[in-house]
Design goal:
Radius of gyration: 14 Å
Distance between the termini: 12 Å
Largest sheet: 2 strands, parallel
Strand order of the largest sheet: 1-2
Number of strands: 4
Number of helices: 5
Shape: globular
Order of helices and strands: EHEHHEHEH
Structural class: alpha/beta
């Protein structure tokens, strides 16, 4: 699991109550180091500022973050903020892109 080697963060555009429901019912804390909810932090993924906030919050350079999402508009905003960004299409493609970034080797 990448969670053992990297800080794996979920960033969701949901309202707080919906996010809390999903986090609890799908046991998302088992898979993520942390879960950020847009309605709680005050930024959503439509806004480049959200990704700048994310880097400041994590105390890392934006270029140290790999943002993965299945919505191209969000991955574009992340790129604008200086993050590495992957548009998720399928698992095979994601693994290949993570290999290219030397995150995984299988």
């Amino acid at each position: 699991s990448l969670k053992f080697y990297y800080k794996v963060i979920a960033f969701t555009n949901e309202i707080k109550e919906a996010a809390e429901f999903r986090i609890e019912n799908f046991k998302l804390k088992e898979y993520f180091s942390e879960i950020l909810v847009s309605s709680v932090i005050g930024y959503d993924k439509y806004n480049k500022d959200a990704f700048e906030y994310l880097a400041k919050y994590l105390e890392v350079s934006p270029s140290d973050i790999i943002f993965i999402d299945n919505v191209e508009e969000y991955t574009n905003k992340a790129k604008e903020a200086g993050l590495n960004s992957i548009l998720y299409k399928n698992l095979v493609q994601l693994k290949e892109e993570l290999k290219n970034l030397n995150i995984i080797n299988y």
